[in-house]
Design a protein that fits this description.
- The chain has 15 helices and 2 strands.
- By secondary structure, it is mainly alpha-helical.
- The two termini are about 25 Å apart.
């Protein structure tokens, strides 16, 4: 990861001064780089880190960063990781172009290094992410999501990129198909568990924010804690709450009622149980492989997700 940081920055160099200014602004607050770390750990688990691993990590981080920039435009978000978003700092038109630049650079790097197999994995992930976003919008408009549909949305929207990290890491190590498949399953189930944990945070008090946020419900996103509560609640209570969500979903009072409803019908407990189930599936996929120096770190990522506070 120490070697990756300067390599990643080098790939974003441009003679255009404005583009350089904006890209430097983005990457100086570019998070913990969990996705590149997953690529390298998966490569190590599957046989060893190579130059192809570095290309895969770069491609995925560029893709991920581009989606964040574009998401902020769609959501009209003013902040990203504690600083102004690109669209707030400059404007939406520039943000779209910069996001496109990140995508183009990722494609270019993969082609220049003849990593067509890895490019296909990531291209498939881009398609799934787009489909997941559209599916979520469709369910938000109709307010008709059930538990199976919820898993389909989070698999496409979130887990597929995590799975692309672990699969491309294994491919970069020239691993056989059975190992590539097992690493894909590890990443997919880890990604689902991560998203369930994020959805729990929206209803569950944390030590960092002190109270639930309700952001998902204010965007008409019905996630697993509420889905379960709606499934087990009496019909009249369900109808009353769905009316409030349909007509007054942006109001704090609606979220407060929904939060009490989730608590009453043990939605958080149910979602936590499902998060553990998907974490165990990830662990089972990992334990089907030979144990290596990366195995413990990949196990720890599952535990990290279950215990994280933000």
């Amino acid at each position: 990861m120490q070697a990756f940081e300067p390599y990643f920055k080098q790939q974003l160099q441009s003679p255009d001064k404005l583009l350089s200014l904006v890209t430097n602004y983005i990457i100086r607050k570019n998070g913990k780089k969990m996705r590149p770390m997953l690529v390298f750990l998966s490569a190590l688990q599957a046989g060893g880190v190579s130059d192809a691993s570095k290309v895969a990590a770069t491609l995925i981080e560029l893709l991920h960063t581009a989606t964040l920039v574009h998401d902020d435009i769609v959501d009209e978000a003013e902040q990203r990781r504690g600083q102004l978003s690109v669209n707030a700092m400059w404007n939406s038109k520039l943000a779209v172009l910069v996001g496109d630049f990140f995508l183009a650079r990722g494609l270019q790097i993969a082609i220049e290094n003849n990593q067509i197999g890895i490019l296909k994995v990531v291209s498939d992930a881009v398609q799934e992410i787009s489909e997941g976003e559209l599916l979520q919008m469709e369910h938000a408009n109709k307010l008709n999501i059930d538990e199976n549909s919820y898993y389909e949305v989070i698999r496409k929207k979130t887990a597929t990129l995590i799975a692309a990290c672990t699969k491309s890491g294994a491919i970069s190590a020239s691993a056989p198909d059975d190992i590539v498949s097992a690493m894909y399953q590890y990443g997919l189930n880890l990604g689902i568990a991560f998203q369930i944990k994020d959805d729990i945070f929206d209803y569950h008090k944390t030590s960092l924010i002190g109270k639930p946020t309700g952001n998902d419900l204010k965007e008409r996103k019905i996630t697993l804690p509420l889905i379960h509560a709606l499934d087990v609640a009496p019909v009249d209570e369900k109808k009353t709450l769905m009316y409030l969500i349909k007509k007054r979903y942006k109001e704090d009072s609606t979220f407060q009622i929904a939060s009490e409803f989730v608590k009453r019908y043990e939605g958080i407990e149910y979602a936590t149980l499902k998060m553990h189930e998907y974490g165990q599936k990830a662990l089972n996929a990992l334990h089907s492989l030979p144990q290596t120096e990366a195995t413990r770190s990949l196990e720890d990522l599952i535990l990290y997700n279950e215990n994280r506070k933000k």
